[in-house]
Amino acid sequence: MIAGYGPIRQLGYVVRDLEAAMAVWAERLRIGPWFHNPRLPLDEYRFRGVAYDGLDMGYALANSGDMQIELIQQRCDTPSLYREFLDRHGEGLQHVCVWPEDYDAVHARACANGLVPVQQGRVAAIRFTYFEDVAGGDTSLEMSEMAPMRRPGIERIRAAAQQWDGRDPVRPYAIRR
Fold it and tell me: How buried is residue 134: exposed, middle or buried, by Cβ count under 10 Å (0-12/13-18/19+)?
């Protein structure tokens, strides 16, 4: 648990080539199947207080046990923590993520504890915030709202990983609205 924000549920890695990364994780690490969405359908996006349209990024989700792994590829020059991390460090662990059910209360607690929100947005009913470099080394804390509509997708990905036999390593994934 991170100071009462909830348990870490996801590790987020920034990569340059999403398809190649999924293949490496599936073939070499035997983590999969990957649920792939080539374009995150953002309804809102702000970085350092400025609203932007058109953040073009794809992502893929898989589980290792109960831990969800996210691979992220940004395909544009829109300012973001993903781009900053990639430019400074190359590929790697960019964030750890908690999924609070009481998003507003946990967000307020993080801000009261001195964490600085720098990247925020919304996808359907799911709000998210990234707090800058909370663990050192430019790894951020992400807070992603545990909206009720999210639970079935999270469970489907976790269950698929438990039963995965190496076949069909990449599967389409879309956020349900």
Answer: buried
